[in-house]
Amino acid sequence: MFQQATLPEVEVYEVLSNARRRKALTELWAQPDTLSLRELSERIAATESGQTPAPRALRESVYNALHQVHLPKLDALGLVVYDPDRKTVRVCSRASHLSRYMDVTTRAGVTWGEYYRGLGIVGLFATVGSLASVPVLSAVDPLVPATVFLLVFAISTLYQLGVGRLRLRGRITRLYRRLF
Questions:
Q1: Number of neighbours of residue 102 by Cβ within 10 angstroms
Q2: 73 DSSP assignment
Q3: Which of 54, 93, 154, 159 could cross-link to 45 by cystine, CB 3.0-4.6 Å?
């Protein structure tokens, strides 16, 4: 098993170069407990096909690829714990550093990067519009839209960071209950 605290970037890009491995990690991050290989493969196949349930041939293809290639690779790198006999998988905490290389999607279906870029553009136009005496915006002091959008940025960042911590806190609570 790979023992280094974080993977070198070359390994990170190798792991994330495959769409099924990226989707597997995303699904496992969203799942607080161990997931069966069948459930994971069905979720990935449904995403790939856009159908629920996905066509049987695709489900089998995803299942076999995960079982034979992707999950053993992720397990060898210490990113997941894969039991090929029981056909179960769970994500390891050291896989969390990979999320900074992946643009995570919000519940609204846009990535956080797209959300922040859009928020920044709208905030900039509102502030500049107020300064440039655009008819509707000229009635507002430029400090108001600038402050409002900075506040929305701060709240969004706290939310984004808080959701990840809440998931981690939930996993720790479940682990504690299992042990005691």
A1: 14
A2: H
A3: 54
What number is the average pLDDT over the span 88-109? 78
Helices 37-49 and 56-65: crossing angle in degrees, nearest 10, is 120
pLDDT digits (tens, 9 = 90+) for 29-57: 887 689 999 999 999 999 899 888 899 99
> What domain count does the chain have?
2
**53 preceded by cis ω (within 30°)?**
yes
The span from the CA of 57 to the CA of 70, in Å, is 18
| 73 has pLDDT over 70 | yes
Whether pTM > 0.70 for this model: the answer is: no
In this structure, are 81 and 49 located in the same domain? yes
One domain, residues 32 and 77: yes
Give the whole-angstrom CA distance, residue 16 versus residue 139.
49
User: pLDDT-based confidence at 168, cuts 50/70/90?
Assistant: very low
Two tokens at 177?
A: 């209950």
User: How far, in Å, CA of 43 to CA of 37, rounded?
Assistant: 10
Among 58, 81, 100, where does a domain finish? 100
- The CATH code of the domain that includes 32 is 1.10.10.10
User: What's the rounded Cα separation, in Å, for the pair 142 and 130?
Assistant: 5
- DSSP H/E element including 112: helix 112-131
Residues 6+ apart with CB under 8 A from 119: 149, 152, 153, 156
